[in-house]
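Bumping my old thread because nobody answered last time. Still need a sequence for this structure:
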């Protein structure tokens, strides 16, 4: 079997047997095309050995000059494909067998929003739809019927991301039937098609979500996606990113705000408020608790800053 055929068959396997998300399939397809270009579409997969893989690693780092995270993703994709080829008896043994292809990623703290940035984003999103004070059902419905649809979408997106820590792709995939407003629960299909539930923390957030679902129904048409554009089409991840960029600009925030920064912020705030890390792991949909533990470094940094401020006040008072 040549490389082109192996890559194509593996993608079919990922779509049909593994039921990977569209996002994961696009990423796998991109990664496999790069490898196919490197070795040649007609190269026999049985001829690919660890020496070829080492040259490919050098190519990614030295010729393509990719970041460690990008190289790690490409190699992980290949490792899964060759493991599948081995199990399917297309090749005798994976070329990754006993190959040390570990890639150490630089340790970077998650990029969080400051408390002031969160306040400014929320205030701006509320002002743009004319909401103030406590959110009631009547207020939320009035906003949904009369305001700019994209401004209302921005407010709902902001509140959901900040209280649930959803990935942007998970949010745009939410369907109306996934939302239980009685229990204030949203059922999510996350990475690897793993199902989990996230929770709307209070009645005001649930009221906002209910009003958005109700007032967008006339624009939604035949689909059942929860977040929609002004024309009623299902929201894309880029649409959500655009909503947040516009809100941040209107709030006078100079740096670029992304949905993933809201995810980081949600996780950090939960830990700082004493929520057990295992619950945060479950909420975020992390398979390994070590992934969740990166947020403990952020809370340590916050603790250090708080202690510094307290020490300064004590010195001033002395």
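Sorry it took so long. Here it is:
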């Amino acid at each position: 079997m040549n490389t082109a055929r192996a890559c194509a068959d593996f993608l079919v396997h990922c779509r049909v047997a593994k039921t990977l998300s569209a996002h994961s399939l696009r990423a796998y397809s991109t990664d496999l095309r790069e490898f196919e270009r490197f070795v040649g579409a007609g190269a026999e997969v049985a001829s690919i050995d660890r020496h070829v893989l080492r040259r490919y690693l050098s190519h990614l780092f030295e010729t393509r000059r990719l970041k460690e995270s990008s190289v790690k993703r490409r190699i992980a994709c290949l490792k899964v494909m060759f493991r599948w080829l081995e199990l399917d008896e297309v090749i005798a043994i994976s070329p990754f067998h006993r190959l040390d292809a570990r890639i150490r990623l630089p340790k970077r703290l998650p990029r969080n929003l400051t408390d002031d940035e969160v306040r400014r984003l929320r205030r701006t999103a509320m002002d743009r739809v004319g909401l103030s004070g406590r959110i009631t059902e009547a207020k939320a419905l009035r906003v949904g019927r009369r305001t700019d649809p994209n401004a209302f979408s921005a407010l709902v997106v902001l509140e959901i991301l900040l209280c649930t820590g959803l990935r942007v792709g998970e949010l745009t995939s939410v369907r109306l039937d996934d939302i239980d407003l009685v229990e204030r629960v949203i059922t999510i299909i996350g990475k690897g098609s793993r199902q989990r539930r996230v929770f709307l923390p209070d009645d005001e957030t649930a009221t906002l979500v209910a009003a958005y679902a109700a007032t967008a129904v006339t624009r939604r048409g035949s689909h059942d996606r929860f977040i929609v554009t002004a024309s009623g089409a299902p929201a894309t991840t880029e649409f959500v990113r655009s909503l947040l960029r516009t809100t941040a600009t209107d709030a006078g925030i100079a740096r670029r705000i992304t949905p993933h920064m809201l995810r980081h912020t949600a996780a950090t705030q939960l830990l700082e408020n004493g929520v057990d890390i295992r619950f945060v792991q479950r909420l975020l949909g992390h398979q390994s608790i070590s992934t969740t533990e990166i947020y403990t470094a952020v809370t340590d940094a916050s603790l250090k800053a708080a202690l510094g401020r307290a020490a300064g006040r004590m010195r001033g008072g002395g």
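The chain has a mean pLDDT of 88. Let me know if any region looks off to you.
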